[in-house]
TrEMBL record, chains A, B:
Keywords: Isoprene biosynthesis, Magnesium, Metal-binding, Transferase. Belongs to the FPP/GGPP synthase family. It comes from Novosphingobium nitrogenifigens DSM 19370. One of its GO terms (cellular component) is cytoplasm. This is Farnesyl-diphosphate synthase. Its cofactor is Mg(2+). One of its GO terms (biological process) is terpenoid biosynthetic process. CDD domains: Trans_IPPS_HT (cd00685). GO terms for molecular function: metal ion binding; prenyltransferase activity. InterPro entries: Isoprenoid_synthase_dom_sf, Polyprenyl_synt, Polyprenyl_synt_CS, Prenyl_diphosphate_synthase. It holds the Pfam family polyprenyl_synt. NCBIfam families: FPPsyn. PANTHER family: FARNESYL DIPHOSPHATE SYNTHASE.
């Protein structure tokens, strides 16, 4: 990523919050996935390998940051964030497989199908998807069944055919079709935007915010989701593979249209900045308590991986 | 399957019920998966290809048969059965893939990864898993959020690492390990038993039966689940590939221990009969209204595919 985008370091509020949520999500996965002494051990190990100790944990960070606006118990928000992260991790495992993106590196270590095998990768992904809904439906999470079922509903919709998986399918189609900007935008709203939006939504659900009170938070989520993907495309085009911990420039090689190929680097970068500024404006009704959410928005364009 | 087991035809009560539930589940999938005019069309088509017009629909039949004991609205029970079937179908798609069982035939037609491609098969399975939880969390299903969240909890647990997927992992391990009868039983209780038990449990949840009132139904479910798998092993050892609509004798070729390899054909068959008799005894507190559940139990040992 060029200097113009990386000259600001994430502030310490965000840095501390990232370190904290990474530890919390790791601890939650660790407690949720104790390796049994039976022939399922290898599956548990593959799930732990992929779920523990990697990733920015941006989605759990969003859940906890929004939930904290409404005084939600932090350990509950962390578990909900871990459920969401479980979906994200499963999608990466399946996406990395030979029949999909065929990637060999993820978070700087061999992908699950290489560290284990393809069959274990399929099953680890499948089990992590189920785990997300096990965590959210657990009566120990929150007593109110309405809160739990709304969390399930939000995550199932955001991760399924009308969300993440639908976006992944469009992404495959992008290799052979030539998408315009509207279609690429739709693709990315589904592929990454839906789950980021779900993170914000689930924080609000935990806070008992009714749907009509979520308008501004949804605007924030929509904008950072799109900005996130534009920056992903910029990092893919300009980034360093070692810093990223994964293979880059695969989209161009596959002949896929991206925000960068359609807008060019300069317009893509300014578009990401505009989106982030608008995202921050959506938080105007909140005071200092939303400072972390503002920092997350700025981080989206400033990150270098 | 030998004559001694197939000399009784399923009675017309069961026959009619199977035809009816097959039509209802097909209609429910059809209504739930309208193909959109966008690049996700291929994914929808693959989901429809695998979900519509195949399979015995034994799990939805169990949901509706149990729900009917308690006067549950049939269309609600059918949707819950379709959610459960969505999980079953996704597991078959992933199980058939080259890196798993590498099967080319399912319900007499080419498996999804052959009719489409491996990537589409991965995503169709992933999307069908999410669909199950979308159906169950839909507020239009039942107003009471407690019923919906209990349905989600039951299905997530039964399909995840402590249920179906855990059993599939043990099944893979069975190729290189030499399991004893206790381990094979545990494997099958997870791999197929958990989802069959969930079908019965979900029917009872719809009927507002409290957990302490489900003991007999759980006994019924546990017994038919095990009998089902023993008969599957018998059909695999003795069945006709064309009638089965799938490849057979793969367990023996893979060197896996099964109920048949461990017990022999005669003891396996008598064990299945004992289990079914016990299953029917668990229904003694019910009258004529449970006749369909008794017929299902008998069908488990009498079926030829």
């Amino acid at each position: 990523m060029s200097d113009t985008v990386t000259n600001q370091r994430p502030d310490s509020l965000l840095k501390d919050a990232l370190v904290r949520i990474q530890q919390e999500v790791d601890a939650c996965f660790d407690a949720t996935l104790p390796v049994p002494e039976d022939p399922r051990a290898r599956l548990y190990e593959a799930m732990r390998y992929s779920a523990i100790g990697g990733g920015k944990r941006l989605r759990p960070l969003l859940v906890t940051a929004v939930a904290s606006l409404f005084g939600v118990d932090r350990s509950v928000a962390v578990r909900v964030g871990t459920a969401l992260e479980s979906i994200h991790v499963y999608s990466l495992i399946h996406d990395d497989m030979p029949c999909m993106d065929n990637d060999s590196l993820r978070h700087g270590k061999p992908t699950v199908h290489l560290a284990y095998d393809d069959a274990t990768a399929v099953l680890a992904g499948d089990a992590l998807q189920a785990l997300a809904f096990e965590i959210l439906s657990d009566p120990d999470l929150v007593g109110d069944p309405f809160v739990r079922i709304e969390l399930v509903r939000t995550l199932a919709h955001a991760s399924g055919i009308n969300g993440m998986v639908g976006g992944q399918m469009m992404d495959i189609a992008a290799e052979t079709a030539s998408f315009d900007l509207a279609t690429v935008t739709r693709l990315q709203q589904l592929k990454t935007g839906a789950l980021l939006a779900a993170a914000v939504e689930m924080g609000a659900i935990l806070g008992h915010v009714p749907p009509e009170g979520r308008t501004h938070l949804r605007g924030y989520a929509r904008n950072i989701g799109l900005a996130f993907q534009i920056v992903d495309d910029l990092l893919d085009a300009e980034g360093d593979e070692e810093a990223a911990g994964k293979a880059l420039r695969k989209d161009a090689e596959a002949g896929k249209e991206t925000f960068v190929s359609l807008l060019g680097i300069d317009r893509a970068r300014s578009q990401a900045r505009v989106l982030v500024d608008q995202a921050i404006e959506f938080l105007n009704s909140y005071g200092e308590e939303a400072e972390l959410l503002r920092a997350v928005a700025r981080y989206i364009v400033e990150r270098d991986r």
